[in-house]
Input
Amino acid sequence: MKNDNSNVTNGSRRAFLKRAGSLSLASVAAPWLINLSALADASAATTGEYKALVCIFLSGGNDQANTLVPYDSGNHTLYQRYRPSFAYSRQQLAAGALASENTALDSAGFAHDYALPPALAPLLALFNEKRLGVMLNMGTLVEPTTKQQYTGKSVRLPSKLFSHNDQQSIWQSSFPEGAASGWGGRMGDLFQSNNQNKVFSNISLAGNAVFLSGNSAMQYHVSIDGPVKMEALRDPLFGSAACSAALRTLISEPRDNIFESEYNRINKRALESEELLSSSLASAARLNTIFPANNPLAKQLQMVARMISIAPALGVKRQIFYVTLNGFDNHYSLLAPHTHLLGQLGMAMSAFYSATAELNVANDVTSFTASEFGRTLSANTNGGTDHGWGGMQFVMGGAVKGKRFYGNAPILANDGPDDVGQGRLLPTMSIEQFAATLGGWFGVSDSDLLEVLPNLRNFSASARKLDFV
Output
């Protein structure tokens, strides 16, 4: 006898698909509205030689104005006026002045000069060697947005602006907190079939990150010392190797029950991956590059370099890495902690580039900084800065068209065209455009980029890539 509920079920399915089709026309869609079938079809994309992307996330919201400091006389005077208690003097900045091959222009056509603060001195040589580029006024955007559109609420804006969790998620995934996948993970979806060991496609040295989560690709967690061992098998069980062997068999052998079988399959894969990574790292040649001590970011990037060195042994041609440096939420007494963090950042990035050059893969590894938002240009009453919007980022690697600025320089003016309040910069460059440029270099086709980055279609085709690689 036919079940009468079938018509209801089919009708509900048709209604669901109709709603999904309508919703997909909106630029800000839920994560599940990404075209999963298109990603699956594209996952057979071919790759050539090895390439890696390395995301360096500066957690807390990096203060852009004390990272890339206005240096020309007029803008430096404005910069000091906004933050008199912790602004760098021009004398302090002189050694770090950036002699770019192009001129940083604002939307009115005026030129801006910039300098790196003393703590970022290690990056100056990379900039001069054309291995480092600077992104100006970049942030989360749904579509191109002017201040008039922002104040008139006539455009779609990122959800919950100035919120740490949501802006971190939007930066990493294009969606607010609760997103199921990130753009790094979705790029991993496209290429994991070309990796002999798919498990090593997306690798985090900083715990769970939505950036690395794909629709099929999974993120593999690694510590600064190597693979994260299964807790129950970290040491001999009850002091007995035999007990550990028995436990290993129990948690990895096939089972009749479908749930038990899947659980054991995952355990087996984890154990085998751990063994392969451990043995490959143990047999790898020692890096001569010296990474700075007492530097958490340097330790993570050193492990990334070691993993890149064993990519052939792991059977991978495309990898995406995620590392973090915490502590950038500087509402109070910004100068000392921020200077310390920038020192760690500069030394770690410089050492990592040297390691890629030592491994002869500098042209195949592109690293970039990221942070959930920039900070207010105006100082608060506590000698710090508050949550902002647009910020600046670095991109580094042998393939980078360095010693150049990209995007529009922000106009430093109270309530000016780039100020939406308290010196919060209205971004003129979107994360989608930045990610699309990286993705194109990584091997993602233009059509697939529209699936990986759902807001990208809101930007004109000629403006979707920034030409920094």
Q: What stands out?
A: The chain has one domain: 30-227+292-463.
